[in-house]
Amino acid sequence: MMKHYQYMYYWLVIWLQYANSVPATSATMLLIICNGFNLVALIAVIKYGLGVPLYLSSKLVAVAIGVILCMFNFFSLEDKLEEIHENYKEEPEETQAKSELYLIVYIVVSVLLLTVAICVQQMILHRG
C-alpha cells in the first residue's frame, strides 16, 4: 500500500522541481514526505470516517492536490513573468520573447505532468 503513496511523492517532487523551479533538495524531500504522511492520514479519514472506498478517497485527495498545485503554479507563473518584465524594461522585444518562451515551456511541462499523473492514477486503479 505504501507503494501507491510513493508515486504521489515522486509526482509532487517532479512538479515542484520543474514547474516551480524549486531544486529537489533534502529539505524539499523532507517537506514532501511529511506532507505525504498527512495525505495518508487524510485518505484514511475519508476512507474510514466516511466509508468511502480507498481508490475513490485516493482519487478525491489527488484531485484536491492537483487543484491546489495548479493554483500555486498559476500564481508562480504570474510572478515570474512580472519579474522578467521588470528585469528587461529596456528591451521590450526580448522581454516578450522570453515571456512567450516561458509560457510555452510552462504549458508543455504542465501537460507532461498531467499525463504522468493520469498514468500513475491508472496504474493505482488497475493494481487496487
Helix-strand pattern, N to C? HHHH
Please give the domain count: 1
Shape: elongated
Q: Runs with pLDDT <50, length 5+?
A: 18-30
- β content, as a range? under 5%
Layout: helices, strands, pairs:
Layout: H1 2-19, H2 26-50, H3 54-87, H4 92-127
Helix pairs in contact: 1-2, 1-4, 2-3, 3-4
Q: What would you note in describing this structure?
A:
This protein is mainly alpha-helical. The protein has one domain. The chain is built from 4 helices and no strands. Helix 2 runs antiparallel to helix 3. The longest helix is centred in the last third of the chain and has 36 residues.
Any descriptors?
transmembrane helix; 128 residues; elongated; membrane; mainly alpha; 4 helices
Kindly summarize this structure in a few lines:
This protein is an all-alpha fold and 128 residues long. It has helices at 2-19, 26-50, 54-87, 92-127.
